[in-house]
Amino acid sequence: MSANGWLQFALFSLILLATVRPVGIYLARVLEGERTWLDPVLRPIERLIYKLSCVNSAKEMNWREYAYAVLGFSAVSMLMTYAIERLQALIPYGNPQHLAAVGPDLAWNTAASFTTNTNWQSYTPETTMSYFTQMVGLAYHNFGSAAVGIAVAVALIRGIKRTTSGTIGNFWVDATRSFLYILLPASLIYALLLIGQGVPQNMHAYTVAHPLEQPSQTQTIAQGPVASQEAIKMLGTNGGGFFNANSAHPFENPTPFSNLLQMLSIFIIPAGLTYTLGRMTGSPGHGWAVLAAMFVLFAAGFTAVYWAESQPHPLIHSVAQTGTATAPGGNMEGKEVRNGIAASSLFSTVTTDASCGAVNTMHDSLTPIGGMVVLINIMMGEVVFGGVGSGLYGILIMVVLSVFIAGLMVGRTPEYLGKKIESYDVKMSMLYVLIFPLIILSLTAAFVMAPTIGLSSLANQGPHGLTEILYAFTSGAGNNGSAFAGLNANTWWYNVALGWDMLFGRLFMMIPVLALAGNLAQKKSVPPSPGTFPVNTALFTVLLVGVILILSALTFFPALSLGPILEHLVLKAGQLF
Question: DSSP label at 89?
Fold first, then answer.
């Protein structure tokens, strides 16, 4: 650990926090239908979209109608992507490498992955997906899935804000405005910045080069429309790479500035949505308290990963692992030298906090403690900033449970921003919380107990092998998409199982969120009383952090103790003896 590393963390944090208020205000104006500076250009396009789609933008939906729209949109767009992958070889445009059609199980897995904002990739992108598939099938979902997440989040905020209302908004309006006014213009500006940093954006066939050292040999250099997909993959917290190495590839992430820009773009919308929450509900202090809880967990996670990766790896003795003024120290396995320990640790923390999945270092090569922390980041359920939209509604579920626990402590009906939290609200919140570990632990257990389909794909046995399987299903259900690369998941069983894992972890968890929003919207507002627990104080932030950690620890500690914790103890024992 070095002063330079902490300076990188401080700079990132200061820039991020400076963006929260302006981004949050803009998001609130867009999602509330207020006038923005883009209206003269985009409002006519928005109206045209509604007209062509036969959408009545003035008609609002109850929570069931909203849920049907979310599920229907996801199903149709998933089917479209599956068809594009299966017909890839027959589509004449955008396939200069003449890549074959994607197999049925891999196409299913990929369609489910991008539909759910997971972007888990069981394939090598530059040798599997054509430019057309990348742009029309996959990049489209990077916009669509992010817009769905924002729409569900704002529906829940409306449920908290409204009183005696049977509706929570219009999904088609929320998704369209998120797409047009937030994701599209931001991605356009961001892509131009990336092009300026050296990220390719073209439709050329791959370049065949002759290395200077061996002129008789050839090297194929992949390229393509990278910058446009890179921009939305980060802003939409999608994470799917144009290249197999993802953001460790110099064409995706060529400079220190692009590295900083990518990390900021992952957090910028989820962080801004906390201010949007406070502004729309009329309680700015509550938005800051929620942001504070997120930031505390983020800072703690970075500190743990940075410390763990700064330690020499106990099994590597052939190279020096002590840091100097010109060379990084610690565990450099699986990391780019140009990024070093600090930037790699920060990127790994950001991407697993935000359910993004983009990586600039290989998580399978992290130390047991470092790997455990990034795994726990996902296990907390998309609440440390989390995905675009999904992070906000995930932590609001934890807020409801925290308020309920606080009410139990003082022996009175809990209240949250003027709404009484009753049994139905707690049931929906607990359903959301229980679905997540049920999916992960059930699938992990099933594949661990099936050697021919589960263990045969492992590069490692023992506790690290268990962690690889656990990480895969956690990443899928958490809609993260990063992986412990020692597991070859491109098999029929893993592709199919992970596809369902991602769909359940995304769509099934949205239903109780929308049900909670609908129930809260119907309630009357009650004035605060002396027994009301304030949700805009430091004490509330501490309670919220405690509830998140306790729920995650109680649920996943047995699995973690058999995986990364045991691996750490084995390595320490080997170092001692």
Answer: G
CB neighbourhood size of 313 (10 A): 18
Please give the Cα distance from 155 to 63 (Å, whole number). Answer: 9
Q: CA neighbours within 13 Å on the CB side: how many for 173?
A: 19
Alpha-carbon distance of 70 to 507, in angstroms, equals 8
Q: What DSSP element (H or E) covers 35?
A: none
Q: DSSP letter for 216, please.
A: T
Q: 364 in the Ramachandran plot: left (φ > 0), alpha (ψ -120 to 50) or beta? A: alpha
- Mean pLDDT over residues 64-89, rounded? 94
In 3D, which of 370, 354, 384, 345 has the Cα closest to residue 4? Answer: 345
- The Cα–Cα gap between 476 and 510 comes to 15
CA 464, 481, 511, 301 dihedral sign is positive
pLDDT greater than 90 at residue 94: no
Q: Which tokens is 354 given? A: 């935000």
Contact, 357 vs 475, CB < 8 A?
A: yes
Length of the chain: 577
Q: Is 514:432 a contact under the CB 8 Å cutoff? A: no
Token pair of 358, please? 């983009």
Rg of the chain, C-alpha, whole Å = 23
User: Quick one: which of 482, 444, 479 has its CA closest to 465?
Assistant: 444
Distance between CA atoms of 80 and 114, rounded to whole angstroms? 12
Q: Decide if pLDDT at 310 tops 90.
A: no
For residues 439-464, give the mean pLDDT: 89
pLDDT of residue 92: 85
Indicate the SS3 state at residue 36.
coil
Angle in degrees, CA 395, 503, 360, rounded to 5: 70
Closest CA to 16 of 437, 418, 353: 353
Structure-token match 């939305």, residue found: 232
Q: Where are the domains of the chain?
A: 388-576
Residue 441's CB: how many other CB atoms inside 10 A?
18
CA dihedral of residues 474, 69, 276, 415 (deg, nearest 10): -80
Count Cβ atoms within 10 A of the Cβ of residue 210 and give its class: 0-12 exposed, 13-18 middle, 19 or more buried. Answer: exposed
Give yes or no for a contact between 303 and 357, defined as CB atoms under 8 angstroms apart: no
Cβ neighbours for 367, distance < 8 A, ≥ 6 positions apart = 308, 309, 311, 313, 331, 568
Which residue, chain included where needed, has tokens 């950690």?
Answer: 549
pLDDT tens by residue, 185-202: 999 999 999 999 999 998
